[in-house]
Amino acid sequence: MPIFTPVQTIKLVELAKKNRIAPVYLLIGPENICKEKAKEIYEVLKEKNSLLEVYDLKNKEERQTFLEIKGYQESLFGVRKIYLIFGAENITYEKGEEIIKNLNQRKDLFSWFLISENFNEVHPLYQYAFKNGAIIFFSTKREEDLLESELIMTLKKYGKTMDKNTASLFLSLVGKDYHYFKNELEKLIFYTEDKSIITEEDIWEIVIPSEEDALFYLTDRFFNYGPERAYKVVLNLLDKKIEPPKILGHIYKFFKKMQILKEFLEKHPELAEERRYSNFSKKLQELKDNPIEEIPKIITESHPYALFNIKNQSEKIKDFGFIFEELFKADLAIKRDFRNPGKVFNELFLNIWYKMEKAKN
């Protein structure tokens, strides 16, 4: 079992259930995704009473401890022992040879899960995994593409579909945290049990944005449904004990992102004029791939679907001065005057909305 694609992880899980277990699993790519994928496999081994030992070799002290111990240590009573290694690229070639030597003696007692964002192909453990273990590449695509591939695979498994815009909306709401992505996807599948086609309405009704991406949800309600809907979202965030200054900071960051995006689009009218998300996303990626193109970090770190929506929303605003003025007033009202946060946010949304409408006339 040499090289596998991300979507074939499920095959490795099924093989593990049948006791076809690799001595080495090498997962190459973003650590948060590799970590969760490795867990899907080694949880099967833990159910068979295997023991788990974890080392993060990015940590200097743990790396030193790991390099000083013997390449393996047998567990009691002959049960399998799992070694989960983060930052596996820090394993020296000598240490790799030591591990391989011990695996050749008793590979039935050990399984190594090596996680690395960039593992050298000439490393002894890479060569061993290629011949005797399993290598899974998660780094051949952008992180959001990996999540999109898993989304499509999971929907197919349960006989469901969603269009491109709905999939992009879901991915932009859950962010890049694989664990959160998986939990929200399982919830979405469960609550749409009787439906074969999942719509954007289902997403908005069922999926809870991560705190980091709640801003996207909040501002979408404001621009598409008005100040009252945005106010209700804020009340929900306040009920969840999210501090008012943090919410206000999110709103400020959103409008700052919108302002920067609008300035960026002025330099790229072909992107600003694009009305189809698929074309917008493709053209934006071409700009990102251009080594001489300077793109603000706040744009490169945002999901294309969120940027596409912000682009359309920004057309309603000609000048951002009054927005930042209202945000400054709201900040003083909360921090200095200690006014009721709910009332402050209600006034903030109403004032911005009123001035936006006034500017159109």
How many separate structural domains? 3
Our Rg estimate from Cα atoms comes to 25 Å
Give the name of the CATH architecture of the largest domain: Up-down Bundle
CATH topology assignment of the largest domain: Zinc Finger, Delta Prime, domain 3
Helix content: 55-70%
Q: Structural class of the secondary elements? A: alpha/beta
Strand content: 5-15%
Distance between the termini: 67 Å
Q: Helical segment tally?
A: 18
- Overall geometry comes to elongated
User: Based on DSSP secondary structure assignment, what is the total number of beta strands?
Assistant: 6
Biggest sheet features: 6 strands, parallel
- For the biggest β-sheet, the strand order reads 1-6-2-5-4-3
Element-by-element helix/strand order? EHEHEHEHEHEHHHHHHHHHHHHH
Average residue-wise pLDDT:
85
Classify the oligomer: single chain
Q: What is the C-level CATH assignment of the largest domain?
A: Mainly Alpha
Are there runs of 5+ residues with pLDDT below 50, and where? Answer: none
Quick structural summary:
By secondary structure, the protein is α/β, with parallel strands linked by helices.
Explain this structure.
One of its GO terms (biological process) is DNA-templated DNA replication. This is DNA polymerase III subunit delta. One of its GO terms (molecular function) is DNA-directed DNA polymerase activity. This protein is α/β, with parallel strands linked by helices. The protein folds into 3 domains: 3-137, Rossmann fold (3-Layer(aba) Sandwich); 143-206, Helicase, Ruva Protein, domain 3, CATH 1.10.8; 211-360, Zinc Finger, Delta Prime, domain 3 (Up-down Bundle). The chain has helices spanning 9-17, 31-47, 60-68, 93-106, 124-132, 143-157, 164-174, 178-191, 200-206, 214-225, 227-239, 244-267, 269-272, 277-289, 297-300, 304-314, 321-335, 341-360, and strands at 3-4, 24-28, 51-56, 81-86, 110-116, 134-137. The longest helix is centred in the last third of the chain and has 24 residues, at 244-267. The model has no long low-confidence stretch (mean pLDDT 85).
